[in-house]
Amino acid sequence: MSEVLIKIDNILKKYDDNVVLDGLSLDIHEGEVVVVVGPSGCGKSTLLRCINALEPIQGGMITFRGEKIDGRSKTITALRQKIGMVFQSYELFPHKTILDNIILAPMKVQKRSRADARKEAEELLDRVGLLDKKDSFPRQLSGGQKQRVAIVRALCMHPDVLLFDEVTAALDPEMVREVLDVILSLAKQWKTMVIVTHEMSFARAVADRIIFIDQGKIVEEGTPSEFFDHPKTERAQAFLQTFTFDKVEKEA
Amino acid sequence: MNWEVIQSYLPLYEKAALLTLKIGWLGIAFSIILGFVCAIIRHYKIPVLHRIVGIYIELFRNTPLLIQLFFLYFGLPKIGIAIDAEFCGVLGLALLGGAYMAESFRSGLESIEPIQTESALSLGMSRTQTIWHVILPQAISSSVPAFVANIVFLLKETSVFSAISLMDLMFTAKDLIGLYSKTIECLAMLVIFYLIILLPVSIVGSIVEKKLRFAGFGE
Ligand SMILES: Nc1ncnc2c1ncn2[C@@H]1O[C@H](COP(=O)(O)OP(=O)(O)OP(=O)(O)O)[C@@H](O)[C@H]1O
Ligand SMILES: [Mg+2]
Out of B121, B141, B219, whose CB is closest to A54? Predict the structure, then answer.
């Protein structure tokens, strides 16, 4: 197997007395697509936020290529550049045009020239079919378009891994596809990704490995077909059950 | 109304209006700077300073400008710091305005969701870069309406400067009434001069506000 990119080692995360992640360990390998599923409130978003130190952890350790991830360390901005994140609510900067949203961090953080950042941003926008929107403001875009811009913005920093937190959950159904297609094409290019989603058929298509979390612990993991077709634990079976519907038998 | 009287008073009023404007705008300029700094200290809860600023804001928002000016103008010399009336006016207005601007700007900062900060941090931006490029521009534009209201309020407050014998509009009007009892003319000119000062601010303010709303970006 390829090299371990992110090592999550026995982490503990709590808010006051509420333990959210409880001794969770997980290795993410280079080029791997890990999909994290689980019931609402089980700690999926929290896990992603801990990976790029948006949340401090109270125990255990997370390393990136062997380097400790710590929100208070001097190297954290360098590490975060390597870890792209896309949020459910897009979080584009509303006061900047699409192009400026994308090139802000490459210019300010990586000190790239405007021309250079702009050239790459335009190429990436073109690839997701949004080049004509480069001078628009975020509010002029649909949800699906905003989310594709958010992905481009993360990509333009050349991250080694991308974290997706339910990036289609706020979208109208007809826009879900356009965003998921972008992520699928990234998977084909061997991008390392950690994806939290409730779209089970997408999870099955994109994942190398499925992680099922419940109550802050990994309860089950496996390949998509192992997990979806032959879930081993009762909790995973119960969870998957919530996505299937029995034919309604109308009463006579 | 006697037009001759009005004409003969005009130069005095003009001079007074210039003084009012000078002190007013200087005071407002400093109040904006002070307000920014205080708002950031409050919002980001910078240790120790954040308590001091909190006390300052409550103190100045809850006492009349007149009393603040008396303290500065008559009180400071008692402890060996003498300041002239103009400086005192600017300082008084800046301190009062700073407290109001701070609160307006802080509510602008608070209107921005913390996840915007997280989104900038996740791109590798530092705290300072995030505040500068992402948070401040949004906070400023959402505080513009409150800023304009504050500026109009502060310009109106300048009318108490006469109490520390600054020869501003109010002082001039009172003085002329006392001397020649042309009360109607003097008061009419007072009102008109204040309108000349304030109306443009209100008008420009509402244009800027509209511009921000249309060119603007709120989701
Ligand atoms: N800032 C916070 N302060 C206190 N508790 C929090 C905070 N953020 C999350 N939690 C708690 O942590 C737990 C896990 O939350 P998290 O958002 O990680 O769940 P999730 O698996 O992403 O759920 P969903 O599928 O609904 O997004 C929840 O019980 C939540 O109430
Ligand atoms: Mg979540």
Answer: B121
Report the complex ipTM.
0.94
Take atom 1 of ligand 1 and give the residue whose Cα is closest: A15
Ligand 1 binding pocket includes A59 (Cβ within 6 Å): no
Structure tokens at B30: 């400093």
Q: Is A197 in the pocket of ligand 1 (CB under 6 A)?
A: no
Residue to substitute from A88, A93, A139, A142, interface B, most B β-carbons within 10 A: A93
What local confidence, expressed as pLDDT, does residue B166 receive? 81
Q: Which residue of A has its CA nearest to B122?
A: A80
Determine how many CB atoms are found less than 10 A away from the CB of residue A88: 17
Cβ atoms of A137 and A94 within 8 Å: the answer is: yes
Domain B3-215 top-level CATH class: mainly alpha
CB within 8 Å: A83 and B126: no
Cβ-based neighbour number of residue B77 at 10 Å: 11
CB contact under 8 A, A91 and B118: yes
Q: Is A16 helix (H, G, I), strand (E, B) or coil?
A: coil
Q: How far is residue A147's CA from residue A86's CA, in Å, rounded to a whole number?
A: 8
Axis crossing angle, helix B136-157 with helix B183-215, rounded to the nearest 10: 170
The partner residues of A86 in beta bridges, in order of sequence, read: A164
State both tokens at A149: 């811009």
| Residue with token string 């998957």 | A240
pLDDT in tens, B172-206: 888 888 888 888 888 988 999 999 888 988 898 88
The protein residue whose alpha carbon is closest to atom 17 in ligand 1 is A45
Query: Which of A181-185, B110-114, B209-213 comes out lowest in average pLDDT?
Result: B209-213
Task: Find out whether B172 and B101 touch, Cβ atoms under 8 Å.
Answer: no
> How many C-beta neighbours within 10 Å does residue B100 have?
22
Say yes or no: B124 contacts chain A, CB-CB below 8 A: yes
Q: Give the domain ranges of chain B.
A: 3-215
